[in-house]
């Protein structure tokens, strides 16, 4: 009994020592790589580990990074896209990985050959060889999914890992078996195995990862430099070709300058001041010219309208063509001109155009014209006749124009001179009448006063 009790005590002390040792161990940062063919269920598995719904996944283009805490490990998982065209980037992550998780779609037998080649490529890579590898035989929920043994056989996994001296563990699982806390524990247990392997050989792995990572960084730098040099070289060659082409076709030489000089849409906003002043002066003169022509035109129109009203009356005396539906003002103007110059009518008054010269001439005639008071040519009856027709057409006679007065008659009669003036008849008004006028009272004229006035008028007419 004493021996048994001593050995139990010894085991307990060893366990405590191990726990104390693990507790004192520092947190380890490890990077894991998750690879496999597209549609294998890598992203779904990672989501399940994180406690998220594994069904909401889309194909990964490039990679996605997941950080999680697992015991003493600070784990970073790079979930790389499994598409054929993306697999080329996998090698860039091998150096910094402590272990590999290879996911297989166990339900897809047709692609097992492709899986075998792919997994072989991964494990044979110098940066992966010798590192621990976890194979997840995923989609075990699906009917006809291959078992662990089948997959080991199909992939020739035992041979491969022995060649590459990789510690390997295969774990059947399904990302769809539960989620959150009910998540399929097989995935977690597989992850735990991998982390234990890494922990058991951590120092050696860590040294290797650090060295490989430095070498990888240097290699990437060199490759980047080579890429830059390649691009520069290509650019130089292209510029050289363009120069040669420009030399072969001199018409394209200085193309840029000619475009700048002659492009109408590219106008410099900065002009010499003398050019700006000259341009402004030209603009001012243009405005003055336009304004004066407008004023002249309106003045001519006013004159014409004035003349039209006169023509409407004066043309009546000769019955000319002025009122036969005049088509234009111009026609009327010319008609008057001809009549004024020659004193005759002309049928040519209806077929000529208006011009400034004619209008000028017309204005002069208008300003010098004096309306005769009582000449033999004029017929006062026509002028004063109430039957004088209104002009027909565009012109309305002026209402303000008063009719001409009737002539007084003959003022140079020979029998007028040398004769005594007729007696002035002054009607005699009473004082009372004058007072009535002053006071603006209506006055009734007496019969004798009226009779005397009529007599005076009769004597005066007889005398004349
Ligand atoms: N039935 C079943 N379907 C799964 C399982 N795991 C993933 N899927 C489905 O498989 C499809 C692909 O899943 P992903 O996680 O995107 O696959 P992947 O390996 O990340 O694909 P890539 O990102 O293209 O490399 C999705 O429709 C998932 O819903 C599983 O365990 N069972
Ligand atoms: Mg994915």
Automatic annotation (TrEMBL):
InterPro entries: Ciliary_GTPase, P-loop_NTPase, Small_GTP-bd, Small_GTPase_ARF/SAR. GO terms for cellular component: ciliary basal body; ciliary membrane; cytosol; intercellular bridge; motile cilium; non-motile cilium. Mg(2+) binds at residues 43, 60. Keywords: GTP-binding, Magnesium, Metal-binding, Nucleotide-binding. SUPFAM superfamilies: P-loop containing nucleoside triphosphate hydrolases. Pfam families: Arf (PF00025). GO terms for biological process: non-motile cilium assembly; receptor localization to non-motile cilium. One of its GO terms (molecular function) is GTPase activity. The keyword Transmembrane does not apply. This is ARF like GTPase 13B.
